[in-house]
Design a protein that fits this description.
mainly beta; 3-stranded antiparallel β-sheet
Length: 65
């Protein structure tokens, strides 16, 4: 682990960008594999690679305030 801060940035009408050294867990508490330091997490609920974003939010018209 590093001492660099973890940041979470919501993209307008898109995913949450997570930067930093964190562990992502599935709904049963198991670690989800990640290969990058920055990942995009799905917010629309339609991604085929959840918890990660696959860009589907664009085709389903997902919108945020």
């Amino acid at each position: 682990m590093t001492d660099a801060p973890v940041t979470i940035t919501p993209c307008p009408n898109g995913p949450l960008l997570v930067r930093g050294d964190i562990e992502i867990l599935d709904d049963e508490g198991r670690p989800v594999p990640r290969t990058r330091r920055t990942v995009a997490l799905c917010r629309c609920g339609v991604s085929t690679i959840k918890p990660y974003c696959d860009g589907t939010h664009k085709s389903v018209g997902f919108r945020t305030e």
